[in-house]
Amino acid sequence: MARVTFSSTQQQFTVDAECEVDAGNYRELIAAITSRYPALDRAELLQMAVAIDGEIIHEPLLELVDSDSEIHFFHFIAGG
Amino acid sequence: MSEAREFKYIGQSTIRPDGFDKVTGRANYGADLSLPGMIWGKILRSPHAHAIIKRLDTSRAEAFPGVLAVATHSDFPSVTDQAIESGEGSLTLLDLARNVLAKDKVLYHGHAIVAIAAKTSAIAEQALALIDIEYEVLKPVMDVREAMAAGAPILHPDMFTQGLAEKPTTASNVATRLEYKMGDIEAGFKDADVVVEREFYTPTAHQGYIEPHACTVRFEKDGQSMIWCSTQGHFDVRASTAKLLAMDLGKLKVIASEIGGGFGGKTTVYLEPVALILSRKSGRPVKMIMDRDEVFKATGPGSATRSWVKIGARKDGTITAMQGRLAYEAGAFKGSPVMMGCMTAFTPYAVSNMYIEGFDVVVNKAKVAAYRAPGAPQAEFAVEMLVNELAVKLDRDPIDLRLQNAAQEGTQTIYGPKFKRVGLVECLEAARDSKHYQQALAANQGRGVAAGFWFNVGGQSSVHINMNPDGTGTIVEGSPDIGGSRASMQMMAAEAMGIEPGRLKPIIGDTENVAFSAGTGGSRTTFATGMAVIEAAEDVVAQMKQRAASMWNVTAEQVEWVDGVALNTAGEDRLSLAEICAGADRTGGQISGRGNINARGAGPSFAVHLCDVEVDKDTGKVDVVRYTAVQDAGKAIHPKYVEGQYQGGAVQGIGWALNEEYIYSADGLLENAGFLDYRIPVASDLPMIDAIIVEVPNNFHPYGVRGVGESGIIPPLAAVGYAVENAIGVPVTDLPLSPPRVFNLIQGKG
Fold this sequence. Notes:
The complex is a heterodimer.
Chain A: E1 2-5, H1 11-14, E2 18-21, H2 26-36, H3 42-47, E3 49-52, E4 55-57, E5 70-74
Parallel strand pairs in A: 1-5
Antiparallel strand pairs in A: 1-2, 3-4, 3-5
Chain B: H1 19-24, E1 39-45, E2 51-57, H2 59-63, E3 67-71, E4 83-84, E5 91-92, H3 93-100, E6 105-106, E7 112-118, H4 121-128, E8 132-137, H5 144-148, E9 174-182, H6 185-190, E10 194-202, E11 214-219, E12 225-229, H7 234-244, E13 252-256, H8 272-282, E14 286-289, H9 292-298, E15 305-313, E16 319-331, H10 338-344, E17 354-362, H11 376-393, H12 398-404, H13 424-432, H14 435-438, E18 445-454, E19 459-467, E20 473-477, H15 485-497, E21 504-508, H16 525-552, E22 559-562, E23 565-568, E24 574-576, H17 577-582, H18 584-587, E25 592-599, E26 605-615, E27 622-632, H19 639-658, E28 689-694, H20 716-728, H21 739-746
Parallel strand pairs in B: 1-14, 12-13, 16-17, 20-21, 27-28
Antiparallel strand pairs in B: 1-7, 2-6, 2-8, 3-7, 4-5, 9-17, 10-15, 11-12, 11-14, 15-16, 18-26, 19-20, 19-25, 22-23, 23-24, 26-27
């Protein structure tokens, strides 16, 4: 199952620092996470960037997730 | 995707396509567009750092002869607290509107309140004096310690700190608290034989772009509007302005002028929405130009910060723990880059135990904006100063110590992912082996070493390449050129198509004639727009092959493309690109290739800098006598431009370390709002910055590119800071190291 690590801000709503999720793509992942942690704001999650197996992706909506993927959430990085 | 390979054009320093326009004055910048019937806009700005607007009466100004429109915050349609894309800053539409024109409170010296449009700029200026405004002056808070103290004056009564374990019930100047952690920090320090810790301060510093903000706008009666402006992202200008003014995107065309510097400071809007309101109300085109005083007082600088960092290591040099606490000034509205500071500070190191806490704090200064690797230079200053101190305590060479603990492929970062292939080790080795590092120091001289990391980003870019019947072509892309990217686009397209770069002309399209492209920033353009260019060029090649195949009555698979020529593998036929273009009207029409991409796989760029200084102990003046900037470019498309990015970043960082700071009165008024007293380095201040390009290819880019625009500003603060510490034998904690500060340190009064 994919392993999801939450940011420190998200941990206010999840308590757990990480969890395992059965999902084949990013939309299923979000659905599973928000179902398990209803306090997480789905709309805000969909605005976040994510690292899937080390690759930072800013718009991950259509991404596939493998059974052993590692997922990390964080806010957009834009730079200057 | 790419390992080391031979390129035909990539890697050469070609003549820049924008050079002739710039040196002859033909290039058109933000202030250079005039339109028939145009009038001039000027802004009344707050004389106070913190005040309630008790009464505002613009009637006398409106009645002044020659005045055609007046704009205040009430001219914005109702705006919400909706977050808008603003990079690391987490800005809301409401905050943006209140920053562009104050609502009921002014929050910094120079905060815009009223805008006037008149037939001449002189009339507009005179009319400003006729605005009747009454303030209730409040005590300002001017740094994070004041702002975070109990009982501090509160800027926003509706701001409650996010990120605390318990939801607070009283308003605060701390917008957000965040933390990142990895491993067991207590265990890490228990394992250490040597521990170093210190508090640091970095000042507010401006990006220092030479060209002030400027725009010319036109609002037509049917709602169709146009903005010409100096910006790093014209699609972002369109998005922000349309949201603020409740306009359809399709009715707002934004044209990016040539830009005289941005460095992150031109990734937001200040004048454009105001000018558009004035144009709508007057029925005339409006031009607005900031003067230098306004640029300093009212546009976003980089955050001032207070940091505390602690590092522990074993006697053998293994760093066992890194801990930090960072408090960043956001300016008048929330959204400092403290998150980036937290994410980048320890990232050059492979250390199992890390913990860092960050605070985003509002103060009565201009709302901060991005400044080249926003948030990273300040945090890295603290870390790299301590790593140098650690090296001394462990009696280790500072580069060797860093090599022992360097992040590499597979290193876990504090923000989550593990690194793919990165080039920090190669940069450290290049620095160690450089001529600079072998040079002995003379009396009163000191040396500093520092590393830095920036993620780089990808994102959305769109390009089309339109071929002409004579085989020349135009590359239309949507990324304003702030650092030479047009040359790189030209070269990447030429490489993919196998033709001379000079046959292709790169231009920046406006928001109507090129598809969406994210702003130029984040060191993304050569990487992401470059990938879109390559995609478009390959599309052109595919179409060329198809046309040749149709002329030879073979399949496209039987056509090979070599150095701009189609070859029939089933026979002897050959057609050049120019010949195919000449006949294109008979084979399906002129050829246009397209690339639309949401680029991913941006490769981080590490930098390592060496700095030697000489200190005049009688005056405290610091001279940089030798400086080397080493950085990983992945693949340098245009080496001279890449060197220029390294050198420019180094110079900005040196200025930040030695001289640049905002100086405020006790009432919070900015006292050095000009280049005379806000002292940035000029060419005569510094030696040549030696640039060493390291190339560890980024396998996610067809040519191996990593963005290079930002990492170069991160190491200089500590490279210079530690060099001074090394020269004078006194610990350095605060920047800038201007002569009075250094003199006091030497005298023991620091």
